[in-house]
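#onboarding

Welcome to the new folks! Below is a worked example of what a typical request in this channel looks like: someone posts a single protein sequence, and someone else replies with the predicted structure as tokens. Don't worry about understanding the tokens yet, we'll cover that in week two.

Example request:
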Amino acid sequence: MPDKELEQASTTNGLPVAPSLGPSLALVKTPTHSTNVDRRVIFICVLSMILAAAAALIAQWLMDLIGLVTNLSFYGTVSTQLSSPSHNHLGLWVILIPPIGGIIVGIMARYGSAGIRGHGIPEAMERVLLHESRIPMRLTVLKPLSAAFAIGTGGPFGAEGPIIATGGALGSLIGQVIRTTASERKTLLAAGAAAGMAATFGSPVSAVLLAVELLLFEFRPRSFIPVGLAAATAAGLRFALHMHYPVFELPKLSEPTQLALVAYLIIGAVVGLASVYVTRAVYFLEDMFEHLPVHWMWWPVIGAIPVGVIGYFVPRTLGVGYENISDFLCGRLTLTAIALLAGMKFISWAIALASGTSGGTLAPLFTIGSGLGALLGVAMTHLLPYGHVDPAVAALVGMAAMFAGASRAFLASAVFAFETTLDPMGLLPLLSGCAAAYLVSSLLMRNTIMTEKIARRGVRVPADYAADSLDSLLVKDVATIPCVTLKSDQKLADAVKMLSSSDPDAEHQGYPIVDSAGVCVGVLTRRNLLDPRHDAEVTLMELIKRPPVVVYSDCTLRDAADHMVNHAIGRLAVVDRAGPIKAVGIITRSDLLAVWGEGGRRLDKQTRQEAMSATSAPTSLG
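Example response:
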């Protein structure tokens, strides 16, 4: 720093500051002004909308590809029209079709990318949590291709899982090609995933909620605004392609009675219990595949054999099967047919998914849940007076509750069922049923069908969202104000003498250094002052090696914590924003930890209360 610059008076906040012999106060480090939304968010929003358009086109392309593979495999025709494999006339030859798809997926996984294996959403969650939302570029191509072959050859999966995974991979790819932060890549990944779901089902709101509950792990404007715009864009493009009708048919519903709401809550709880065992069954089967004495490349082939066998006896278990859900909701099948189809679909899907093929969870869970809900609804009609329980509503509640219990995406599940049927009379039953399913699942199962796999690898997935306590308090509420300061022209020997005394002021670990005008010129720690390498006759000003790093008294504790991290220091001088940079206080890491300590004491009180309740209970439900 030039000497004449050190001699010039500085100005701070437009006010003159007295000349100082220390570092130029023009270089004072203050927290940057942060907002929830800035111009950068606008840029991410534009990218998200472009991404959504691409994801919508990919969704349509994948649907066409699945239709092409399905028609070639089961009917020997060249057509992209999505059709059900259940009407095939192959006889026993149908058993061989799914294993052919398994061979193709296994080869693509081994020699292309192992990332195509699995549900899709858990792998995206792992990328968000461990790899800064970076997904390899080849997955953007291989995931939809592998899914098309797996589903097109009869795999009992829905197309939405691979589309969601592909949209997320595309968002991550764009975030890697264009210079973005890890947080922005996560937003783009979630935006792509939400766009994929919205383009498949025309359900933009539940797509946003799914992204928030399973991928973003936060609820901030700078993240959910781009995701919302992406979902709206994708759904708008879907409607523009003349696909504006509800995905699932539902007969006209009547307003539920209070007694019926109780029944739907009970149905939700039972389905939530079933979701726990569905999840456990899937991972039990995955563990069984782990013990097979063959390379994992062959697992999809092995898992596809039961799919073919079951498909021969119950053809409606093959393929996407969205029409099965509509039939359950509309009551077009007998009770025996519902039980057989839902049960066989579960067995077929669980084995295929556990084998590591490229598939998803949403549509199969909706099918299983709607079938179980329909059966429970019929049972409830015999227990309650006539007209109270509608089996169609029970099936709708079962569909949403199964996914809510298995994934813990509570809001996404309830809103999805509403958006795909467009009947507002189902909202109250959906909320009560999904809440009951979530409660039962949380009591009986630590992880979910989405998180169990990555939890076994030691990855902790956030499940609770709460306001940051550091964001709710200001620096002036916690800092030591006023604080003990030392003069810049003071000799080191005098300072050491003070530190060695019994004066209470000598107990601090850091001291703001001020000049004759009271302006903060730096901060020295006790370790700096007691360093034996320093000459006792030097002034404290000569020991200062960097411009002062300060924080305003009206900043939040989160601002202060981030400022400490950015500058690798453990304490900040506190100054007022309205005046010269005069040290009015000091805040340390210990002060920030004390805030968490107060929160900890509150948590300890809550924990003690919970422990007392637990000791009075006979057993633990967890």
